[in-house]
């Protein structure tokens, strides 16, 4: 009875809340596979409510770690805008693309002057 109620609650969340919240499960974003709600639903269906709880709690801990990983990646990378440096006299036009640099005031200079591929290496 408790398993059926939990599965119905998860299904309602997946149907009416999750599609509209604007983000996805951090664990699924980092590792792929189902999100935490899908994992919990499957665990309850497979093992029952009480035996599934430790597995679900472990998954939530892993999801928190994945969220922190995503936050660290976002904090360490710049949201850079590519800008062209002015060509100096004698530069060949085809070298212009090699002179692109990243700059973004939001980065607080963390990647100012770095090449754009360095700034976007996490993509």
UniProtKB/TrEMBL annotation:
InterPro entries: Membr_insert_effic_factor_YidD (IPR002696). This is Membrane protein insertion efficiency factor YidD. It comes from Aliiroseovarius halocynthiae.
């Amino acid at each position: 009875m408790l398993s059926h109620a939990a599965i119905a609650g998860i299904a309602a969340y997946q149907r009416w809340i999750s599609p509209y919240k604007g983000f996805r499960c951090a664990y699924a974003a980092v590792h792929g596979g189902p999100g935490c709600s899908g994992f919990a639903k499957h665990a309850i269906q497979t093992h029952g409510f009480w035996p599934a709880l430790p597995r679900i709690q472990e998954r939530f801990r892993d999801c928190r770690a994945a969220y922190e990983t995503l936050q660290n990646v976002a904090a360490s990378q710049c949201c850079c805008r590519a800008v062209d440096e002015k060509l100096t006299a004698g530069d060949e036009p085809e070298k212009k693309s090699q002179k692109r640099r990243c700059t973004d005031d939001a980065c607080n200079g963390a990647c100012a002057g770095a090449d754009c591929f360095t700034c976007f290496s996490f993509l």
